[in-house]
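Box 3.1 A note on notation
Throughout this textbook, protein chains are presented in two layers. The first layer is the amino acid sequence; the second is a token string describing backbone geometry. Keep the layers aligned when reading.
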Amino acid sequence: MRDFLTFRKMITPLVIQILFWVGIVTSVFSGIFLIVTADGGVFVLQGIFLLLLGPLIVRIYCEVLIIFFRINENLVEIKNNTNRGVE
């Protein structure tokens, strides 16, 4: 609990994973909705693109956000290993 209150333990990676799944579900349902309710042409094409590319774009965006936290975790690990070597 102390690590959480002093911001040593990050909760944002968990939040990003939740947002990833919300984004996937939203893009898939939105794509299907556009395809089903479209009168023709452009909306069907937009629905197909959203259905296929939406999850990919959400994944890439979430991976970019996670990279920052992985960098932080690796730096903390390097610091801890360096401190152990000095002692």
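The longest helix spans residues 42-86. Residues 41 and 65 are 35 Å apart (CA to CA).
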